[in-house]
Prior knowledge:
- Helices cover 78% and strands 0% of the residues.
- It is mainly α.
- The two termini are 15 Å apart.
Amino acid sequence: xxxxxxxxxxxxxxxxxxxxxxxxxxxxxxxxxxxxxxxxxxxxxxxxxxxxxxxxxx
Length: 58
């Protein structure tokens, strides 16, 4: 359930960013940074744990 909530948050964030002219297809590193930050905040993880979580599940 929590992962679905995060996916929904990202879908909204990506849509908003695309309206502002950002293109995540040409800049995957930006998407990765945003994903790591969101996971870190959502689960109260350290930066290293958030990166490992994202690598494992995304």
